[in-house]
TrEMBL record:
InterPro entries: Di-Nase_FeMo-co_biosynth (IPR003731), DiNase_FeMo-co_biosyn_sf (IPR036105), NifX/NifY_domain (IPR051840). The keyword Ribonucleoprotein does not apply. This is Dinitrogenase iron-molybdenum cofactor biosynthesis protein. Transmembrane segments: none annotated.
């Protein structure tokens, strides 16, 4: 299963969900994580909107990581949390190093509980 991480440096969780320029996508399998890819994002907060904009920028950001079981960011607003809840995606706030954050998530058992559900 996949986990999205808002990071600007690839070392620590550094991004607020609404302002994230990119998400690293990590795969969790057999008790281990491996980096799959980095996805570029147009930040939802402060995004330019005009009459040609059909979709809410927050929906675009949520859709970008909607194939993940969890999202790790430094901050996330209620709007995004509600959208993730509706999709069954866990959202966590942390400022830890990526390895530490992923380790704590794995140890929590939440990823395996979600997989079994």
């Amino acid at each position: 299963m996949k986990v999205a991480i808002g990071t600007s440096d690839g070392i620590a969780v550094t991004e607020h969900f609404g302002y994230a320029l990119q998400f690293q996508i990590w795969d969790f399998a057999d008790g281990r994580f491996r980096l799959l890819e980095t996805r570029r994002n147009l930040p939802a907060c402060g995004a330019a909107r005009d009459e040609r904009t059909v979709r809410d920028p927050m929906d675009v950001s949520v859709d970008l990581v909607s194939d993940c079981r969890a999202v790790l960011v430094t901050r996330i607003g209620e709007c995004a949390v509600n959208k993730f809840d509706a999709l069954g995606i866990l959202a966590f706030e942390t400022e830890d190093a990526i390895g530490q954050a992923l380790g704590e998530l794995a140890e929590s058992g939440l990823l395996t509980e979600r997989e079994a559900a």
